[in-house]
């Protein structure tokens, strides 16, 4: 894969057609990836504004900025926006769409029309949810626990539910599309064990999306029927069981955490290999740990219910399985660390984001052990400890991984280099800001501060002020890429086909890629990270 | 402004030191792994830094002994934490035999407590130290959660069923009592204070404190038992249309569907409010439902009265 061999064509997927219709009716996976990017970025900004208001309110113990009702709507809409419209689609729908066919040497995904339909479904769901927010929002918490969501809440639960229900189908269809694509569209010679680890991670994620999302769709449908028709599925006065909702909800929503983190892990496997100029240590262990996480992820849902009145013996089983699911994540972390050993480590910004991922994911993963521990979870559940833990995983891990991927593939998508120094500075701000925001929340949680509290006892103020201060640094860190990314489009230097001198098929075609990706179908003759081999060829 | 700032919660129950030791133990174990990974990543990142981008790393692909080592060692450590945490968990959820019972109901946005002697209080809970206390509670509307951080105990209040927490306070003091399950607008206002008192002070409080008591909980239950005509069917000698309730609390009850269950507070509550749910073997299903006829306070009083009933000598057969 000699990079100098790429012949640049003046025509690429961005400039071969210019009309608005050519974007809105595109079947090109790369353009669809960019369409998702636009909406995910908007949702990230919106969710960030909600978060900013929450952190501002919490700088004082009294409820002096927002009313209780508005505060409750803020944390609910923050959660819904970030989870369903940022974290779940970010890596699979944005990066996955853009690079998956490129990485396996395909012209497109298996079902390009279905792929466009998925985006329209996503946007429709997003507009429904947005409409609910504009009408006055929703205040149930993103978890929609019954009976509050069916009887207590007077906010726009139904419209929000419809929005999430619709969006779910986008996730299911994208997962289906990727599974078929990986099975049927690989280039000649691209065997399963030559696949980049990002593909393994996306494949495992797609399985979870296809198998898990229908359950949350059914659960939301039942919630809607209960709220409108009073069916009595969850209402104890009619013989229903409110805890049943929690089982159904978490049967999807725990695996959904793996939809958020697995693809980010896949990105990290790519960036660490590229910027260490090495094979990923223990390729097959990293690959199979993705599948193990996808499978075990379905067997731990009731660890969200340890204080909800489930039998202590079933709590034992779910606690044990929750410890078990930690092992494949630990294996991945050790393998990434070992990959660095005797590497030639190139400190470019995607690698700095990857270091950030390692640090935050490590803390997020290890604090999960506290919550899997039955004797500790009783005290810690529903407190800020949980808030801190899942932010470290889903945002610390998930968004750092997404940003690592954005910085890694930005030159491929746009053909331009961004300011690498600015990007490294953003990574540093995010890492520092993140730890300052969520680190104090672990202490707050062990002190006993419950989550979703609008006003709180004054002894918790110091830690909350620290957390809000961190959030302001974090906000700058998250906003910074918008500036240097946009600037790169105007004055960034040309990236060339392979600015990172990386292995991988996506780097063998020009940047931005041709409308059909490759001039001719590539033939694969070696494993995914054959850096040493290539160097010998050059030398 | 920053009154009472602290980094570690008060340790005010017998279970709290157990939970804290577990916490510090897991902190130590996880800190060890975190430091190992952070030191390795930092050391490798600096030692092997090469910003030319021209060289490649050593051709290392993996190592089976290392993979097995870093899979199995964390696995066994995880099992160790699992066992330790589970032992503590059973200490938290398993109440000792002799406890002082307090009934409670959560409703938006307050906690109501009923003491055995009849005292009622709202968002305040007075309890003696040095004695195991068990709070049996439910919710009148949506989910709530009774959480006392200083005691390290917590459980959801679920409408339609009883939950319970137990603790034995060790330190006199005033402690936070939080609703920890989101319940709507004034969720964060659903907080209160636990007053852990010397036994003598507690007795004095019982004698003079609380809101006006209309007889002990047991006496209130006895009155209701007659008023609601329970007494016409549940005859003490077992000849009534319903089974005798003497000694039923805590006993094993055979049902008409062939199963056997333990008659705890939740079963008694369910049998009163939704009597059609379970029928005792050998009896007709004729008991009306009392849903709407008796409130949560009344149910608690009835249960307390049923608990006090002694088994008649000839009644052992039907309840065992």
Strand order of the largest sheet of chain B: 3-2-1-5-8
Number of domain units of chain B:
3
CATH architecture of the largest domain in chain B: Sandwich
The most extensive interface, with participating residues per chain, is:
A-B, 96 and 94 residues
Distance between the termini of chain A: 14 Å
Q: List the secondary-structure elements of chain B in sequence, H or E.
A: HHEEEEEEEEEEHHHEEHHH
Strand content of chain A: under 5%
Reported by name, the CATH topology of chain A is: Cytochrome C Oxidase, Chain A
CATH superfamily of chain A: Cytochrome c oxidase-like, subunit I domain
How would you describe what is shown here?
- The complex is a heterodimer of chains A (539) and B (320).
- Chain A is mostly helical.
- Chain A has a single domain (3-538), classed as Up-down Bundle (Cytochrome C Oxidase, Chain A), CATH 1.20.210.
- Chain A is built from 16 helices and no strands.
- Chain A has helices at residues 20-24, 29-57, 68-104, 112-135, 148-152, 157-184, 197-229, 242-276, 283-296, 312-340, 349-372, 374-380, 384-414, 420-447, 461-491, 531-538.
- The longest helix of chain A is centred in the N-terminal third of the chain and has 37 residues, at 68-104.
- The radius of gyration of chain A is 23 Å and the shape is globular.
- In chain A, 63% of the residues are buried.
- The model of chain A has no long low-confidence stretch (mean pLDDT 94).
- Chain B is an alpha+beta fold and 320 residues long.
- Chains A and B meet through helix 3, helix 5, helix 8, helix 9 and helix 10 of A and helix 1, helix 2, strand 7 and strand 9 of B.
């Amino acid at each position: 894969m000699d990079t100098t061999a790429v012949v640049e064509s003046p025509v690429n997927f961005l400039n071969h057609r210019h009309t608005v219709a050519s974007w809105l009716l595109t079947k090109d996976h790369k353009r669809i990836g960019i369409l998702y990017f636009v909406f995910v970025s908007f949702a990230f900004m919106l969710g960030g504004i909600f978060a900013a208001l929450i952190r501002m309110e919490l700088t004082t113990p009294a409820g002096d900025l927002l009313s209780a009702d508005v505060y409750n709507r803020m944390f609910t809409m923050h959660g819904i926006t970030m989870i369903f419209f940022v974290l779940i689609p970010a890596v699979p729908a944005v990066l996955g769409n853009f690079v998956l066919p490129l990485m396996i040497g395909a012209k497109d995904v298996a079902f390009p029309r279905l792929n466009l339909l998925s985006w329209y479904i996503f946007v429709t769901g997003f507009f429904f949810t947005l409409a609910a927010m504009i009408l006055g929002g929703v205040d149930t918490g993103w978890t929609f626990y019954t009976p509050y969501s069916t009887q207590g809440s007077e906010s726009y639960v139904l419209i929000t539910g419809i929005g999430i229900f619709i969006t779910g189908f986008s996730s299911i269809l994208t997962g289906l599309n990727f599974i078929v694509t990986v099975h049927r569209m690989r280039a000649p010679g691209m065997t399963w064990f030559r696949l980049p680890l990002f593909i393994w991670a996306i494949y495992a994620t797609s399985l979870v999306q296809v198998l898990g999302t229908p359950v949350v769709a059914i659960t939301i449908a039942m919630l809607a029927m209960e709220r409108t028709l009073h069916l009595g599925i969850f209402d104890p006065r009619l013989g229903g069981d409110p805890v049943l909702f929690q089982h159904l909800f978490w049967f999807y929503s725990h695996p959904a955490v793996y939809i958020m983190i697995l693809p980010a892990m896949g990105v990290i496997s790519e960036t660490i290999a590229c910027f260490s100029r090495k094979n990923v240590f223990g390729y097959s262990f990293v690959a199979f740990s993705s599948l193990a996480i996808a499978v075990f992820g379905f067997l731990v849902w009731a660890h969200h219910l340890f204080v909800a009145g489930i039998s202590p013996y079933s709590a034992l089983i779910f606690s044990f399985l929750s410890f078990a699911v930690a092992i494949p994540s630990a294996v991945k972390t050790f393998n990434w660390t070992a990959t660095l050993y005797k590497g030639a480590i190139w400190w470019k910004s995607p690698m700095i984001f990857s270091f950030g991922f390692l640090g935050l994911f490590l803390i997020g993963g290890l604090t999960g052990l506290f919550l899997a521990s039955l004797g500790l979870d009783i005290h810690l559940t529903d407190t800020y400890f949980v808030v801190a833990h899942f932010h470290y995983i889903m945002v610390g891990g998930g968004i750092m991984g997404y940003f690592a991927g954005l910085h890694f593939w930005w030159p491929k998508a746009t053909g331009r280099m961004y300011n690498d120094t600015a990007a490294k500075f953003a990574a540093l701000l995010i890492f520092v800001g993140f730890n300052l925001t969520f680190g104090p929340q672990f202490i707050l949680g062990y002190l006993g501060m419950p989550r979703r509290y609008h006003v709180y006892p004054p002894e918790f103020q110091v830690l909350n002020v620290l957390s809000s201060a961190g959030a302001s640094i974090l906000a700058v860190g998250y906003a910074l890429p918008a500036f240097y990314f946009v600037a790169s489009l105007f004055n960034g230097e040309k990236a060339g086909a392979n600015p990172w001198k990386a292995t991988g098929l996506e780097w063998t075609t020009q940047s931005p890629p041709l409308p059909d990706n490759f001039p001719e179908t590539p033939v694969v003759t070696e494993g995914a990270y054959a850096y040493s081999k290539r160097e010998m060829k050059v030398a | 402004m920053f009154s009472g700032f602290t980094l570690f919660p008060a340790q005010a129950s017998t279970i709290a030191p157990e939970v804290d030791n577990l916490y510090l133990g897991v902190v130590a174990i996880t800190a060890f792994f975190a430091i190992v990974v952070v030191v390795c990543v930092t050391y490798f990142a600096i030692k092997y830094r090469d910003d030319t981008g021209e060289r490649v790393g050593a051709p290392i692909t993996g190592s089976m002994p290392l993979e097995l080592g870093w899979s199995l060692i964390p696995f066994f450590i995880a099992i160790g934490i699992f066992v330790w945490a589970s032992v503590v968990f059973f200490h938290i959820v398993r109440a000792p035999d002799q406890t002082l019972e307090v009934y409670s109901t959560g409703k938006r946005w307050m906690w109501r407590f009923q003491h055995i002697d009849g005292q009622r209080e709202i968002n305040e809970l007075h309890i003696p130290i040095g004695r195991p206390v068990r709070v049996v509670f439910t919710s009148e509307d949506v989910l709530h959660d009774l959480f006392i951080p200083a005691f390290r105990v917590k459980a959801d209040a679920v409408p339609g069923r009883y939950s319970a927490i137990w603790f034995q306070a060790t330190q006199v003091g005033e402690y936070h009592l939080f609703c920890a399950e989101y319940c709507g607008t004034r969720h964060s206002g659903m907080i209160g204070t636990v007053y852990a008192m010397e036994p003598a002070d507690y007795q004095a409080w019982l004698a003079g404190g609380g809101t006006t008591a209309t007889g002990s909980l047991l006496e209130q239950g006895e009155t209701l038992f007659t008023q609601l005509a329970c007494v016409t069917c549940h005859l003490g000698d077992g000849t009534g249309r319903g089974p005798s309730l003497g000694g039923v609390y805590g006993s094993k009850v055979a049902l008409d569907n062939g199963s056997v269950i333990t008659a705890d507070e939740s079963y008694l509550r369910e049998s009163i409010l939704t009597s059609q749910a379970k029928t005792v073997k050998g009896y007709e299903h004729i008991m009306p439902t009392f849903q709407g006829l008796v409130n949560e306070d009344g149910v608690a009083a009835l249960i307390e009265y049923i608990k006090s009933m002694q088994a008649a000598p000839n009644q052992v057969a039907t309840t065992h």
